[in-house]
Design brief:
Layout lengths: L6 E3 L5 E3 L3 E6 L6 H6 L3 E7 L8 H11 L2 E6 L5 H20 L12 H21 L6
Antiparallel strand pairs: 1-2, 3-4, 4-5
């Protein structure tokens, strides 16, 4: 399956066609000789969230709040451009999914009675220990 045919799905209201992603390719950095210097296997995928089709307005605003208007992913892990493209699409999809996850609200709690008693008992024991170390000047 070609990368422009793939659909990025990050949940309900977010199904972005692969044609919305713009690509740039270049040589990978680092050692590797002639193959690494001449083969353009590094893939850079860019998705503009403000204009991408397939995103509901509410979802779009949440994505832009979390990620900004543009997401950019660069992959040069594999020797093959096709594999790097697939990995870049996977990373884009993961980023979109993580941005749409809503965090549970934390309900503030108080320590239980047993925990309070243990804390006070430990403080009292520490105080006794320090008091026993003191030398008495009266003797």
């Amino acid at each position: 399956m070609a990368s422009h045919d793939r659909l990025l799905s990050a949940g309900p209201g977010c199904r972005i066609p692969g044609s919305e992603i713009s690509w740039r390719f270049g040589p990978t950095g680092g050692p590797g000789g002639q193959h690494a210097n001449r083969a353009h296997t590094r893939a850079e995928a860019t998705l503009d969230l403000s204009t991408a089709r397939g995103i509901d307005d509410e979802v779009r605003s949440r994505l832009i709040t979390h990620l900004g208007t543009e997401i950019k992913v660069t992959v040069d892990k594999h020797r093959s451009q096709v594999r790097n493209r697939e990995r870049a699409l996977d990373l884009l999809q993961i980023r979109l999914q993580e941005a749409l996850v809503t965090q549970k609200r934390r309900r503030p709690t108080r320590p239980g009675r047993g925990a309070t008693e243990r804390r006070l008992k430990a403080k009292k024991e520490q105080s006794q220990r320090k008091e026993n170390r003191r030398t008495s000047w009266d003797q």
